[in-house]
Design a protein that fits this description.
single chain; alpha+beta; 6-stranded antiparallel sheet; 4-stranded antiparallel sheet; 7 helices; 16 strands
């Protein structure tokens, strides 16, 4: 295996951040890296989520947690009751759906998000997000020719903050792939739950979504994510949520946003809903 400090990105801090013995991502041409990427691609097809536990080394994880804790007070709460289609705001408009239709059903959302432009340029959080080695690895795992940090200053890198009783509603994501890194787990609760591939490009499968919203559990998978876990997830197709946080310790999670094109911006409407528009998400 090539020396992690010199290949392929000599200035990349990845060797001090990632457990490269467990996850040999500094040498993507190695058999061990190829096997890891193959496994990840298979898991992203089914069950639609891939968890890399203990991805971050101990000292780096401590620094990440301290940085996230220090910024948590800047989190903006946003809406507290939303539908599963929070990221596709007008999916049911003008269709005359009844009140109990999934596009009109809401579940609790109790979390705040720290906008990317409130995270210091020299923070380890940001260096991880921009790591060339990590980006190259993620592109391979997702089967993309290239990935770029999302250019949107607010949406590129977020910290999700959940206090006691905090939770996230059942929902789908806008993007095809979601990448998260848990900086701090709560004392209890805060579990990730999802229903794999409940919808597709050809069908919204509203009937199945309704069953989950009504409490059906037969297809729900629960993942207890530990601190330091990198997770890749097909959130566009799988209905998912975070269960209520228990205890005084916050649940702190990084959301790493990338795009297949440089200079891609997010929507202003999304920024307003998540960060309070100009009021909460800007350094201007």
């Amino acid at each position: 295996m090539a020396d992690a400090r010199t290949a392929p990105f000599p200035d990349d801090p990845i060797a001090k951040i990632v457990d490269l013995e467990r996850y040999p991502i500094a040498d993507l041409e190695s058999p061990a890296a190829a096997a890891l990427i193959t496994r990840m691609r298979e898991e992203l097809v089914y069950p639609g989520a891939c968890c890399l536990r203990n991805f971050i080394r101990g000292e780096a994880l401590t620094e990440l947690r301290c940085e996230a804790e220090g910024l948590a007070h800047l989190a903006y709460g946003g809406p507290r009751e939303v539908t599963p289609y929070f990221f596709n705001y007008r999916i049911g408009e003008g269709k005359g759906y009844p009140e109990d239709h999934p596009t009109r059903r809401t579940t609790p959302r109790r979390l705040g998000q720290v906008a990317g432009d409130l995270i210091p340029e020299d923070a380890l959080l940001r260096r991880i997000h921009r790591s060339p080695g990590l980006i190259a690895f993620l592109a391979k795992a997702l089967g993309e020719p290239a990935l770029y940090p999302l250019a949107d200053r607010r949406q590129s890198l977020n910290i999700s903050v959940m206090e006691k009783d905090g939770c996230q509603q059942w929902h789908f994501d806008r993007g095809k792939a979601v990448i998260t890194l848990l900086a701090q787990a709560p004392e209890g609760g805060g579990h990730f739950e999802y229903v794999p591939n409940i919808r597709s490009e050809d069908s919204e499968n509203y009937e199945a979504v309704s069953r989950v919203l009504n409490g059906a559990r037969e297809d729900v998978r629960t993942v207890e994510i530990t601190a330091g876990t990198l997770m890749l997830f097909r959130g566009h197709y799988s209905l998912h949520r975070v269960t209520p946080v228990e205890g005084k310790r916050r649940r702190l999670q990084l959301i790493l946003a990338y795009a297949d094109k440089p200079d891609l911006q997010g929507s202003a409407e999304s920024s307003h809903l998540h960060y309070g528009g100009q009021a909460a998400g800007s350094r201007d």
